[in-house]
Design brief:
α1 packs parallel to α6, α1 packs across α13 and α3 crosses α13. The radius of gyration is 21 Å and the shape is globular. It starts with a strand and ends with a helix. A hairpin with a 2-residue loop joins β9 and β10. It is built from 13 helices and 19 strands. Bound molecules: flavin-adenine dinucleotide (FAD). Flavin-adenine dinucleotide binds next to α1, α2, β12, β17 and α13.
Length: about 375
């Protein structure tokens, strides 16, 4: 047995790392264990869009709080936070109605949003195709990060400032309760003791408590993503979300006209919707353009059914729709797939014992709401 801690966290994705940040900041001695040499899960494969505007219910509040947390940390270390805002471009009257309804809702909640006419959208985003744009809803306070850099720098920050003991390359194969808390065992048989153990293993459901996770109703989503070459002179500020996103995100589902929108899906969107495609753009710091994404689903216990490949057919569908929206060329230099777990219950939280807890299944909202959610999750568990 080596050292002993107040809290051991398993998994250094966004959820595990933000839990480690909050716990260590409140004075806990934290050990953070990651199985890979550096995180390569959902947390580094995403857009890095921090968009509370798309979230519903308590997740919107966690998203708002997450933005404060990103800003607080950004003042001390460069997490790559850029506050360039989020725009949703409506492409037909139904989507525009929803944008207006969401604007009214956020006015009541005191969350700043601006409705932009077609002309204003085209002035602010001159590379949008005029035929596509009906209007837009803009959230000036929203932000983006570079996912890989963000998590790498956050891990460095919590080690340096809060003495988090971060150990990559540590595959946890067991966690057991005992009289003084819980013991964690690595694949090399090294053991660690803590008062409590938190498991944030992302979509990995087989290594730890597979029986619990098999019963959890978790579904894994596979997302295809594209990275296009920089285009000379192109400046694409912030998060650019489009009509299919309005048709997909939870916040719009809470709007009064959402039911009639789903009843009127235009024919040309049917194949895109079949593959869970909505088109989002984000320009990375080096000028390249991230475009996505699609969604395929399988039970978490059968995630291999989703395949290890990316499908050209899906990439083509995304590219064609993207070129219906923007005028600049998309010359693809990389494609990849990302995976996350999700559940109908919004997140999976489960106390295996008094001292061992699992938190996973945050789905597609972890970069937007994970920082704020982790704060509340710890407050409730440790109180
Ligand atoms: C393509 C894509 C695009 C997305 N875009 C956005 C976006 O723009 N905005 C947004 O808000 N969200 C987005 N998301 C969602 C977001 O990325 C996830 O919600 C979030 O990253 C989940 O974080 P996590 O920590 O739960 O999982 P992960 O990032 O998967 O982290 C889990 C970690 O646990 C480790 N682990 C697992 N088991 C063990 C073990 N036994 N021992 C040690 N370590 C272990 C894994 O190695 C991994 O590093 C996107 C996701 C994808 C895939």
């Amino acid at each position: 047995m080596t050292s002993s801690y107040d809290l051991i966290i398993i998994g250094a994705g966004a959820l595990g790392t933000f839990h480690a940040y909050h716990a260590a900041k409140s004075g806990k001695r934290v050990l953070l264990l990651e199985k890979d040499s550096y995180p390569v899960g959902a947390t580094v494969r995403n857009f890095g869009q921090v968009v509370p505007s798309g979230l519903a219910g308590r997740w919107f509040e966690y998203g708002r709080r997450s933005m404060e947390i990103y800003r607080e940390i950004q003042q001390e270390t460069d997490l790559t936070v850029r506050s360039n805002g989020t725009i949703y471009i409506a492409s037909d009257p139904d989507e525009w109605t929803l944008a207006n309804e969401l604007h009214d809702r956020y006015q009541q909640l005191g969350y700043t949003s601006e409705l932009l006419t077609k002309a204003q959208c085209l002035i602010n985003y001159p590379t949008l195709k005029p035929d596509y744009v009906v209007g837009g809803i803009f959230f000036p306070q929203e932000m983006s990060v570079e996912p890989e850099l963000m998590i790498h720098r956050l891990l460095g920050f919590i080690q340096q400032k809060y003495n988090v003991d971060y150990r990559p390359g540590s595959v946890v194969i067991d966690a057991q309760s005992n009289a003084s808390g819980a013991t964690v065992t690595l694949s090399n048989r090294q053991q660690f003791q803590a008062e409590r153990v938190l498991i944030c293993g992302g979509h990995e459901v087989r290594l730890l408590f597979p029986d619990v996770l098999a019963q959890a109703g978790l579904v894994v989503s596979k997302l295809q993503m594209l990275l296009a070459e920089p285009v000379a002179g192109l400046r694409l500020p912030g998060n650019i979300l489009t009509g299919l996103t309005i048709r997909r995100y939870e916040a719009f589902q809470e709007c009064p006209s959402y039911a009639s929108l789903t009843a009127n899906t235009p024919e040309h969107l049917a194949e895109l919707k079949k593959w869970g495609i909505h088109i989002l753009f984000k320009q990375a710091i080096d000028g390249s353009i991230i475009v996505g994404d699609s969604h395929e689903y399988a039970a978490a216990t059968q995630a291999e059914d989703l395949g290890y490949h990316t499908q050209d057919y899906i990439n083509e569908l995304m590219l064609n729709e993207a070129q219906r929206i923007v005028t600049f060329p998309l010359t693809i230099k990389k494609t990849w797939a990302g995976f996350y777990s999700q559940t109908k219950a919004e997140i999976f939280e489960y106390n295996v014992t008094d001292s061992i807890r699992i938190v996973t299944g945050i789905g597609g909202k972890g970069m937007s709401s994970g920082a704020g959610y982790a704060e509340e999750s710890l407050r409730q568990w440790l109180s």
